[in-house]
Write a structure and sequence with these properties.
Distance between the termini: 49 Å
Low-confidence stretches: none
Mean pLDDT: 91
Number of helices: 10
Radius of gyration: 17 Å
Number of strands: 8
Protein backbone atom coordinates (compact mmCIF):
# COMPACT_ATOMS: atom_id res chain seq x y z
CA UNK A 1 0.00 0.00 0.00
CA UNK A 2 1.37 3.43 -0.96
CA UNK A 3 2.24 5.93 1.77
CA UNK A 4 1.04 8.79 -0.45
CA UNK A 5 -2.14 10.44 0.80
CA UNK A 6 -4.30 12.71 -1.33
CA UNK A 7 -6.48 15.39 0.23
CA UNK A 8 -9.04 17.67 -1.34
CA UNK A 9 -9.08 21.11 0.30
CA UNK A 10 -12.23 23.25 -0.02
CA UNK A 11 -12.20 26.81 1.32
CA UNK A 12 -15.10 29.24 1.73
CA UNK A 13 -16.73 31.81 -0.50
CA UNK A 14 -20.49 32.08 0.00
CA UNK A 15 -22.48 31.41 -3.16
CA UNK A 16 -19.21 30.94 -5.07
CA UNK A 17 -19.09 27.52 -3.39
CA UNK A 18 -20.96 26.32 -6.50
CA UNK A 19 -17.62 26.52 -8.31
CA UNK A 20 -16.32 23.61 -6.22
CA UNK A 21 -19.07 21.34 -7.55
CA UNK A 22 -17.80 21.79 -11.11
CA UNK A 23 -14.25 21.14 -9.95
CA UNK A 24 -15.31 17.94 -8.16
CA UNK A 25 -17.16 16.79 -11.27
CA UNK A 26 -14.07 17.22 -13.47
CA UNK A 27 -11.67 15.66 -10.94
CA UNK A 28 -13.81 12.54 -10.52
CA UNK A 29 -14.19 12.21 -14.29
CA UNK A 30 -10.39 12.18 -14.54
CA UNK A 31 -10.16 9.39 -11.96
CA UNK A 32 -8.85 11.45 -9.02
CA UNK A 33 -10.11 10.34 -5.60
CA UNK A 34 -9.10 11.77 -2.21
CA UNK A 35 -8.13 9.77 0.87
CA UNK A 36 -9.69 12.50 2.98
CA UNK A 37 -11.22 15.94 2.56
CA UNK A 38 -10.84 19.21 4.48
CA UNK A 39 -13.32 22.08 4.33
CA UNK A 40 -14.07 25.49 5.79
CA UNK A 41 -17.17 27.70 5.65
CA UNK A 42 -19.19 26.90 2.50
CA UNK A 43 -16.36 24.50 1.67
CA UNK A 44 -17.30 22.65 4.85
CA UNK A 45 -20.80 22.05 3.49
CA UNK A 46 -19.52 20.84 0.14
CA UNK A 47 -16.82 18.73 1.81
CA UNK A 48 -19.32 17.01 4.09
CA UNK A 49 -21.76 16.21 1.32
CA UNK A 50 -18.99 14.85 -0.88
CA UNK A 51 -17.54 12.84 2.01
CA UNK A 52 -20.91 11.13 2.39
CA UNK A 53 -21.30 10.39 -1.33
CA UNK A 54 -17.82 10.56 -2.89
CA UNK A 55 -18.84 9.49 -6.38
CA UNK A 56 -20.16 10.96 -9.61
CA UNK A 57 -23.82 10.43 -8.64
CA UNK A 58 -23.21 12.23 -5.37
CA UNK A 59 -21.62 15.19 -7.15
CA UNK A 60 -24.55 15.43 -9.58
CA UNK A 61 -26.97 15.42 -6.64
CA UNK A 62 -24.89 18.17 -5.02
CA UNK A 63 -25.10 20.13 -8.28
CA UNK A 64 -28.88 19.77 -8.17
CA UNK A 65 -28.93 21.12 -4.62
CA UNK A 66 -26.87 24.15 -5.62
CA UNK A 67 -28.99 24.79 -8.71
CA UNK A 68 -32.09 24.90 -6.52
CA UNK A 69 -30.63 27.19 -3.85
CA UNK A 70 -32.03 30.64 -3.27
CA UNK A 71 -30.57 33.38 -1.10
CA UNK A 72 -33.43 32.93 1.39
CA UNK A 73 -32.36 29.30 1.91
CA UNK A 74 -29.13 30.55 3.47
CA UNK A 75 -29.59 34.23 4.33
CA UNK A 76 -33.28 34.77 5.10
CA UNK A 77 -34.28 38.28 6.14
CA UNK A 78 -37.54 38.27 8.01
CA UNK A 79 -39.48 40.35 10.52
CA UNK A 80 -37.55 38.62 13.31
CA UNK A 81 -34.31 39.68 11.60
CA UNK A 82 -35.44 43.30 11.63
CA UNK A 83 -36.36 43.01 15.31
CA UNK A 84 -32.95 41.52 16.07
CA UNK A 85 -31.27 44.51 14.43
CA UNK A 86 -33.40 46.91 16.45
CA UNK A 87 -32.41 45.05 19.61
CA UNK A 88 -28.74 45.33 18.63
CA UNK A 89 -28.33 41.60 18.25
CA UNK A 90 -24.83 40.17 17.83
CA UNK A 91 -25.68 38.78 14.39
CA UNK A 92 -27.79 39.61 11.35
CA UNK A 93 -29.09 36.24 10.12
CA UNK A 94 -31.01 33.52 11.95
CA UNK A 95 -29.16 30.25 11.15
CA UNK A 96 -32.29 28.06 11.34
CA UNK A 97 -32.83 28.11 7.56
CA UNK A 98 -29.22 27.05 6.94
CA UNK A 99 -29.56 24.33 9.57
CA UNK A 100 -32.67 22.98 7.81
CA UNK A 101 -30.83 22.96 4.50
CA UNK A 102 -27.92 21.02 5.99
CA UNK A 103 -30.09 18.51 7.84
CA UNK A 104 -32.34 17.95 4.81
CA UNK A 105 -29.56 17.07 2.38
CA UNK A 106 -26.58 15.80 4.34
CA UNK A 107 -26.29 11.98 3.94
CA UNK A 108 -25.11 11.39 7.52
CA UNK A 109 -25.71 12.80 11.01
CA UNK A 110 -22.24 12.66 12.55
CA UNK A 111 -18.92 13.53 10.96
CA UNK A 112 -17.38 10.16 11.79
CA UNK A 113 -20.14 8.43 9.76
CA UNK A 114 -18.90 9.87 6.46
CA UNK A 115 -17.76 7.44 3.76
CA UNK A 116 -14.33 9.08 3.61
CA UNK A 117 -12.76 11.02 6.51
CA UNK A 118 -13.81 14.67 6.62
CA UNK A 119 -12.22 17.43 8.67
CA UNK A 120 -13.66 20.91 9.14
CA UNK A 121 -11.97 24.11 10.27
CA UNK A 122 -13.63 26.62 12.59
CA UNK A 123 -12.10 29.41 14.68
CA UNK A 124 -12.16 30.11 18.41
CA UNK A 125 -12.28 33.58 19.95
CA UNK A 126 -8.48 33.86 19.94
CA UNK A 127 -8.22 33.13 16.23
CA UNK A 128 -6.94 29.59 16.77
CA UNK A 129 -8.17 26.94 14.37
CA UNK A 130 -10.47 24.26 15.77
CA UNK A 131 -10.32 20.92 13.98
CA UNK A 132 -13.71 19.19 13.81
CA UNK A 133 -13.88 15.56 12.74
CA UNK A 134 -16.35 14.00 15.17
CA UNK A 135 -19.76 14.83 16.54
CA UNK A 136 -22.97 16.25 15.03
CA UNK A 137 -22.24 17.29 11.46
CA UNK A 138 -24.79 20.11 11.31
CA UNK A 139 -23.29 21.81 14.36
CA UNK A 140 -19.78 21.50 12.94
CA UNK A 141 -20.80 22.96 9.57
CA UNK A 142 -22.69 25.83 11.20
CA UNK A 143 -19.62 26.61 13.33
CA UNK A 144 -17.29 26.52 10.33
CA UNK A 145 -19.66 28.78 8.37
CA UNK A 146 -20.48 31.26 11.16
CA UNK A 147 -19.32 34.45 9.43
CA UNK A 148 -18.74 36.99 12.23
CA UNK A 149 -21.56 39.49 12.55
CA UNK A 150 -23.71 37.64 10.02
CA UNK A 151 -24.31 34.33 11.81
CA UNK A 152 -24.10 33.63 15.56
CA UNK A 153 -21.16 31.74 17.00
CA UNK A 154 -21.72 28.02 17.66
CA UNK A 155 -20.67 26.41 20.91
CA UNK A 156 -19.03 22.99 20.62
CA UNK A 157 -17.59 21.27 23.69
CA UNK A 158 -17.92 24.52 25.62
CA UNK A 159 -15.99 26.59 23.07
CA UNK A 160 -17.61 29.38 21.02
CA UNK A 161 -16.62 28.98 17.38
CA UNK A 162 -16.93 31.09 14.24
CA UNK A 163 -16.07 30.90 10.54
CA UNK A 164 -12.93 28.96 9.68
CA UNK A 165 -11.81 31.75 7.32
CA UNK A 166 -10.74 33.79 10.36
CA UNK A 167 -8.38 31.10 11.68
CA UNK A 168 -4.62 31.50 11.65
CA UNK A 169 -4.38 27.92 10.37
CA UNK A 170 -6.32 27.29 7.15
CA UNK A 171 -7.73 24.09 5.58
CA UNK A 172 -4.51 23.72 3.56
CA UNK A 173 -2.42 23.88 6.74
CA UNK A 174 -4.65 21.26 8.35
CA UNK A 175 -4.41 18.95 5.34
CA UNK A 176 -0.60 18.94 5.54
CA UNK A 177 -0.73 18.50 9.33
CA UNK A 178 -2.94 15.44 8.82
CA UNK A 179 -0.30 13.87 6.62
CA UNK A 180 -1.38 14.70 3.08
CA UNK A 181 1.48 14.36 0.64
CA UNK A 182 -0.65 15.42 -2.32
CA UNK A 183 -3.14 18.25 -1.93
CA UNK A 184 -5.65 19.36 -4.54
CA UNK A 185 -7.06 22.78 -3.66
CA UNK A 186 -10.55 23.72 -4.86
CA UNK A 187 -10.79 27.51 -4.40
CA UNK A 188 -14.03 29.40 -4.74
CA UNK A 189 -12.07 32.43 -5.91
CA UNK A 190 -13.43 35.96 -5.64
CA UNK A 191 -15.33 38.43 -7.82
CA UNK A 192 -12.25 39.72 -9.62
CA UNK A 193 -14.23 41.73 -12.18
CA UNK A 194 -16.67 43.62 -9.94
CA UNK A 195 -16.83 47.23 -11.10
CA UNK A 196 -18.12 48.54 -7.76
CA UNK A 197 -18.60 47.22 -4.22
CA UNK A 198 -21.45 44.75 -3.78
CA UNK A 199 -24.70 46.28 -2.54
CA UNK A 200 -25.59 45.61 1.09
CA UNK A 201 -23.73 44.91 4.32
CA UNK A 202 -23.85 41.11 4.04
CA UNK A 203 -22.71 41.11 0.41
CA UNK A 204 -19.79 43.40 1.20
CA UNK A 205 -18.83 41.33 4.22
CA UNK A 206 -18.84 38.13 2.16
CA UNK A 207 -16.78 39.75 -0.61
CA UNK A 208 -14.21 40.79 2.00
CA UNK A 209 -14.10 37.22 3.32
CA UNK A 210 -13.38 35.84 -0.16
CA UNK A 211 -10.43 38.22 -0.49
CA UNK A 212 -9.18 37.23 2.96
CA UNK A 213 -9.34 33.56 1.95
CA UNK A 214 -7.42 34.23 -1.28
CA UNK A 215 -4.62 36.00 0.60
CA UNK A 216 -4.48 33.25 3.23
CA UNK A 217 -4.15 30.65 0.51
CA UNK A 218 -1.38 32.64 -1.18
CA UNK A 219 0.50 32.77 2.12
CA UNK A 220 0.05 29.03 2.69
CA UNK A 221 1.28 28.18 -0.79
CA UNK A 222 4.36 30.36 -0.32
CA UNK A 223 5.27 28.44 2.84
CA UNK A 224 4.21 24.97 1.75
CA UNK A 225 6.83 22.29 2.50
CA UNK A 226 8.60 20.91 -0.57
CA UNK A 227 7.52 17.43 0.52
CA UNK A 228 3.87 18.30 -0.19
CA UNK A 229 2.75 18.18 -3.82
CA UNK A 230 0.02 20.84 -4.13
CA UNK A 231 -2.18 21.49 -7.14
CA UNK A 232 -4.58 24.40 -7.48
CA UNK A 233 -7.71 23.98 -9.58
CA UNK A 234 -8.31 27.18 -11.59
CA UNK A 235 -10.39 29.90 -9.96
CA UNK A 236 -12.78 31.61 -12.35
CA UNK A 237 -11.67 35.02 -13.62
CA UNK A 238 -13.09 37.23 -14.99
CA UNK A 239 -15.91 36.82 -12.48
CA UNK A 240 -18.42 39.47 -11.49
CA UNK A 241 -20.73 37.31 -9.35
CA UNK A 242 -21.11 38.44 -5.76
CA UNK A 243 -20.74 35.68 -3.12
CA UNK A 244 -24.21 36.81 -1.98
CA UNK A 245 -25.80 36.02 -5.37
CA UNK A 246 -27.26 32.49 -5.55
CA UNK A 247 -28.86 32.88 -8.98
CA UNK A 248 -25.72 31.96 -10.94
CA UNK A 249 -24.99 28.48 -9.56
CA UNK A 250 -25.70 26.63 -12.80
CA UNK A 251 -23.36 28.91 -14.75
CA UNK A 252 -20.63 28.74 -12.11
CA UNK A 253 -20.75 24.93 -12.04
CA UNK A 254 -20.61 24.74 -15.84
CA UNK A 255 -17.72 27.20 -16.11
CA UNK A 256 -15.77 25.48 -13.34
CA UNK A 257 -16.28 22.05 -14.91
CA UNK A 258 -14.94 23.24 -18.27
CA UNK A 259 -12.03 25.20 -16.76
CA UNK A 260 -10.98 22.29 -14.54
CA UNK A 261 -11.20 19.79 -17.40
CA UNK A 262 -8.98 22.05 -19.51
CA UNK A 263 -6.57 22.48 -16.59
CA UNK A 264 -6.32 18.70 -16.11
CA UNK A 265 -5.80 18.10 -19.84
CA UNK A 266 -3.00 20.68 -19.89
CA UNK A 267 -1.15 18.95 -17.04
CA UNK A 268 -2.53 20.82 -14.06
CA UNK A 269 -2.33 17.72 -11.89
CA UNK A 270 1.38 17.45 -12.58
CA UNK A 271 2.27 21.12 -11.90
CA UNK A 272 2.98 22.50 -8.45
CA UNK A 273 0.56 25.24 -7.44
CA UNK A 274 1.84 28.80 -7.66
CA UNK A 275 0.74 31.62 -5.32
CA UNK A 276 0.62 33.88 -8.38
CA UNK A 277 -2.39 31.92 -9.65
CA UNK A 278 -4.59 33.47 -6.95
CA UNK A 279 -3.04 36.87 -6.30
CA UNK A 280 -5.80 39.53 -6.34
CA UNK A 281 -5.32 42.03 -9.15
CA UNK A 282 -7.18 44.60 -11.14
CA UNK A 283 -8.95 42.88 -14.02
CA UNK A 284 -9.22 44.86 -17.25
Amino acid sequence: MSDARTAFVLAGGGSLGAVQVGMLRALLASGVRPDFIVGSSVGAMNACYFAGRPDADGVETLAGIWNGLRRSDVFPFTFSTALALLRRSDYLVDPSALRRLIETWLPFDRLEEATIPVYLVATDMQGIAAQLSQGPAAEAILASAAVPGIFPTVEIDGVALMDGAVAANTPLSLATKLGATRVIILPTGYACALEKPPSGAVARGLHAITLLIAWQLIRDLEHLPETVNAHLAPALCPLNVSPYDFTQSRLLISRATAATQKWIESGGLTRRASPLDLRPHRHH
